[in-house]
Design a protein that fits this description.
Layout lengths: L5 E2 L12 H14 L10 E6 L4 H15 L8 E7 L8 E3 L4 E4 L2 E4 L2 H7 L5 E3 L1 H5 L8 H7 L4 E7 L4 H10 L6 E6 L4 E3 L1 H16 L13 H13 L2 E10 H4 L6 E11 L7
Parallel strand pairs: 1-5, 2-9, 3-8, 3-9, 4-7
Antiparallel strand pairs: 2-12, 4-8, 5-6, 10-12, 11-12
Length: 273
């Protein structure tokens, strides 16, 4: 079990502002500026969003969260999956803490799913894996800004086959109250024009629901591939909401990191498949 019941904010003041008013102002500005290409008619079942510092990827992530705000009362649970950057993980790691802290307050972990998931193969509880990990934490202030009351189930995915992740995602799929959120950036440290070509190809695979993306093209490739396989089974429709890189937002164009946001929604009976 955790040595403390709250997992404190680890990257506030680095990846996003630690001051409450500054943080809320920045999020509100990004949400207000977000202009998705089209407003999907159906609520999302899943999102794919990037996880760099807000000045780099925040505007791209905000495109998905601005849409999510239209259904803020629908979702009471968010299942979050992202890559483990800081600590080597064999399989997938749950946190030990009862809640995650941000400058905007605490977000409770769904304890029923937390207990249930530990009986499944490939799952461990690791306080160390979550302690300094940024990929899920940076999503929380956005979620706190666009949803009402909700719980989270945070999973950090390490060395694991995408096909072994599928039964876990199916077990957590839930009903209309549950949102699946995948945290992933795209290619890393290529020149601007080369990155645009690589990232467009990765986005085309995602839009075609074709697993097989590698970690050179998306750091969260394993959870992305797991989602694509499950999305095909549930007949989800993917929508590309935004595609940019750090050369478009706040960085040099010599070596860029790619960012995209996607919404996946269900057909009329997709939840039954």
């Amino acid at each position: 079990m955790a040595s403390a019941s709250i997992r404190p904010a680890a990257v506030a003041g680095q990846f996003y502002p630690a001051d409450v008013r500054h943080l809320q102002l920045q999020i509100n500005e990004m949400l207000s500026a977000a202009v998705p290409p089209d407003m999907p008619a159906a609520p999302p079942k899943a999102l794919v969003v990037p996880h760099a510092g807000y000045i780099y990827s925040g505007p791209v992530a905000a495109t998905a969260y601005a849409l999510l705000a239209h259904w803020r009362e629908r979702f009471s649970k968010v299942v979050m999956l992202g890559p483990a950057h800081r600590v080597a993980v064999l399989g997938a790691a749950l946190p030990a803490a009862l809640s995650f802290q941000t400058p905007l307050g605490n977000v409770p972990v769904d304890r029923d799913d937390w207990q249930r998931l530990q009986a499944m193969p490939g799952i461990q509880v690791s306080e160390a894996a979550h302690a300094f990990e940024h990929c899920l934490e940076v999503q929380l202030p956005f979620l706190q800004s666009v949803l009402d009351q909700f719980t989270i189930l945070p999973l950090l995915v390490g060395r694991m086959r995408a096909e072994d992740l599928q039964p876990l995602m199916e077990a957590l799929w839930g009903g209309p109250e549950t949102l699946i959120l995948i945290s992933s950036d795209l290619s890393h440290y290529h020149p601007y024009d080369e990155a645009r070509v690589l990232d467009r190809g990765t986005c085309d695979r995602i839009l075609a629901l074709r697993p097989g993306i590698d970690h050179e093209h998306a750091c969260g490739a394993t959870p992305v591939n797991g989602l694509l396989a499950v999305a095909a089974n549930h007949r989800l429709r993917p929508h590309l909401l935004d595609l940019r890189n750090s050369g478009d937002t706040a960085g040099s164009r010599d070596r860029v990191v790619g960012y995209a946001s996607f919404q996946f929604d269900e057909d009329d009976d997709g939840a039954r498949h």
